[in-house]
């Protein structure tokens, strides 16, 4: 009789936790995740029993790299469900070269002096240009 009692208590003890764990719904509210680092969000979602797919977005240059932009799907989910976490990738490196706009400003003032009348040293008179018809 002792072996049968052991067999009855082991299955019932292991069945109860699995039933309660799989039946618990998980609420996914995007406001809980947007703006956070994607690594922290992934960790939190995996701790809740969800499977996470990471989706790196092209950063236009004005977004914080690694910041979560969205999660999908949202609402009530079950343990084991797949959740996509979209986050901003690194800012493009090409954003630095277009900024040197000040190089355009010096070209405008430098054109003005070259278009002006040539300088004549003080105390000298420019030679008169010959006129047509005088000969």
List the helices and strands and how they pair.
Elements: H1 2-23, E1 25-28, H2 38-47, E2 51-57, E3 68-72, E4 75-78, E5 82-88, H3 104-115
Parallel strand pairs: 2-5
Antiparallel strand pairs: 1-4, 3-5
Biased composition (Basic and acidic residues): 33-44
Biased composition (Low complexity): 1-25, 104-121
Region (Disordered): 1-135
Description:
By secondary structure, this protein is of the alpha+beta class. It has a domain of 66 residues: Trypsin Inhibitor V, Chain A. 33% of the residues lie in helices and 20% in strands. The protein is built from three helices and five strands. The chain is rod-shaped. The termini are far apart.
CATH architecture of one domain: 2-Layer Sandwich
Span from first to last CA? 144 Å
CATH topology of one domain: Trypsin Inhibitor V, Chain A
Highest CATH level, the class of one domain = Alpha Beta
Oligomer: single chain
**Low-pLDDT runs:** 1-21
One letter per element, helices H and strands E, the order comes to HEHEEEEH
Instruction: Give the strand order, joined by hyphens, for the main sheet.
Output: 2-5-3
Largest sheet composition: 3 strands, mixed
What's the mean pLDDT score?
Answer: 75
Write a concise synopsis of the structure shown.
With 135 residues, the protein is of the alpha+beta class. Helix content is 33%, strand content 20%.
